[in-house]
Write a structure and sequence with these properties.
single chain, about 170 residues, mainly alpha, 5 helices
């Protein structure tokens, strides 16, 4: 039984790696962080949806195809906002039907449709936390620098009192 679970995990990771490589080559100018972030997103979605290996193999091509369509629709969004929203809704409806077949229930398909937003919330929260931590560290560094400058000033004042003022 353990060996079967290991095999499933191995296949799942292979699927994730294949999706990562597709994402890395499909972008025009990938940033160094893009494959890492994509991998985190894949792991997050896989965990949130509790995808089996078989489900993942069917889910990710549908998800990636929808993502590509959504990207293309966003490029033409400037023209007509309502037309964009109508097309996105139509694509989401199609995706939901396909996901219901793959995931076996409408509840899981609905969850899959919202998992992107959930990932973006988690990502935003993490970035905000890191930004706040970085700011706190910078503030501490500035305080430490100020303390050091104050100590140096005090030492110089002591030296001047002892030796007399510099001319």
């Amino acid at each position: 039984m353990l060996e079967r679970n290991n095999m499933k995990n191995f296949l799942l990771y292979c699927t994730i790696l294949m999706m990562l490589s597709k994402g890395a080559f499909a972008q025009n100018q990938p940033s160094p962080e893009a494959p890492i972030l994509q991998g985190i997103k894949i792991a997050f979605i896989t965990k949130q949806l509790s995808l089996s290996t078989e489900e993942a193999q069917k889910f990710w091509p549908l998800y990636n195809d929808f993502s590509d369509k959504a990207k293309n629709l966003r490029k033409g969004q400037e023209i007509d906002e309502l037309a964009f929203e109508a097309k996105m809704l139509e694509e989401r409806k199609k995706l939901k039907l396909e996901l219901t077949k793959v995931l076996g229930s409408e509840d899981r398909a609905n969850k899959a449709l919202g998992v992107d937003r959930e990932f973006n919330k988690v990502l935003k929260k993490e970035l905000d936390n890191r930004r706040a931590l970085r700011q706190k560290m910078e503030n501490n560094t500035e305080k430490q620098q100020q303390k050091m400058e104050n100590r140096i000033d005090k030492q110089q004042n002591k030296i001047e009192k002892h030796n007399g003022p510099k001319n």
